[in-house]
């Protein structure tokens, strides 16, 4: 997705004007909901230089806005981000509030949840806020991502309920079974990653590259989940553009595809029973 001057959109905004406004207001330390008349204000020489430097980084170096401001929003929450993590934009934010509970026998009694591939920890934090009594584990292979996630967990005051663990998918997860396993893994086919606009190349390749057809981690996660779900539990995975190959390979597991506003419907749910968990 491209905006004016060849700046790729899609990481924090879809419209170049919105992103430019966001960058200018945050550089000037002005509230993001400022009255539009603020744009008529004249700038001091120092303010002008600051704004121009930020716009240069965004337009010439193609640094994503979120890495410039070191912040991103998901589900109305603000998260610290830097180049060690993917900029939060998961479809789970649409699905979690209303579409997941109907799949659980007793959502209020969910006690153990895991976010595999946690990155900035954004989904682990949203999960902890949704399942108020649950202990949540956030797993990631990248030590840098786990440092960022730790910062976010502390900022959202969830250190008592959200635990972060370095783990290759579920292999290093603490013992026991989960009510809910959720993952937004790297799912771009390798060849797509190579062709992504420059903005996306600032994100960690480990966060994007899902192997030849994008499903390398998805396949492993499905295999590993069978021994880690409680009876009645659910596995939810975001697969991006991989729905068709996913359905060809895993259609027998009867995945339910959640509806998303833009119609991409790229997050599925598999019930524990379909993985042979009784
Ligand atoms: C698409 S990002 C998702 C981050 C975050 N959950 C979100 O939605 O913004 C994928 C994350 O998976 C991590 N990752 C990649 N391979 C992994 C593996 N084998 N085991 C655990 N985490 C992995 C990356 O470090 C990255 O943080």
Which SSEs are present, and which pair or pack?
Blueprint: H1 16-28, H2 45-59, H3 65-69, E1 71-74, E2 77-80, H4 92-99, E3 112-116, H5 122-130, E4 135-140, H6 143-155, E5 162-166, E6 178-183, H7 190-195, H8 198-201, H9 216-225, E7 229-238, H10 243-250, E8 256-257, E9 267-271
Parallel strand pairs: 3-4, 3-6, 4-5, 6-7
Antiparallel strand pairs: 1-2, 7-9, 8-9
This protein binds S-adenosylmethionine.
Residues 85-86, 88, 90, 117-120, 122-123, 139-142, 145, 168-169, 184-186, 204, 206-207, 217 line the site of S-adenosylmethionine (SAM).
- Please give the radius of gyration in angstroms: 20 Å
CATH H-level homologous superfamily name of the largest domain? Vaccinia Virus protein VP39
Compressed to H and E, one letter per element, the order equals: HHHEEHEHEHEEHHHEHEE
- What is the CATH architecture term of the largest domain? 3-Layer(aba) Sandwich
Query: What molecules are bound to this protein?
Result: S-adenosylmethionine
Percent helix range: 25-40%
The total tally of domains equals 2
CATH class of the largest domain: Alpha Beta
| CATH topology (level 3) name of the largest domain | Rossmann fold
Spans of 5+ residues with little confidence (pLDDT < 50)?
1-5
Strand residues, percent = 15-25%
Shape: globular
Number of helices: 10
Distance between the termini: 44 Å
**How many DSSP E strands?**
9
Class of secondary structure makeup: alpha/beta
Q: Biggest sheet, in brief?
A: 7 strands, mixed
Sheet with the most strands: spatial strand order: 5-4-3-6-7-9-8
* Mean pLDDT value: 94
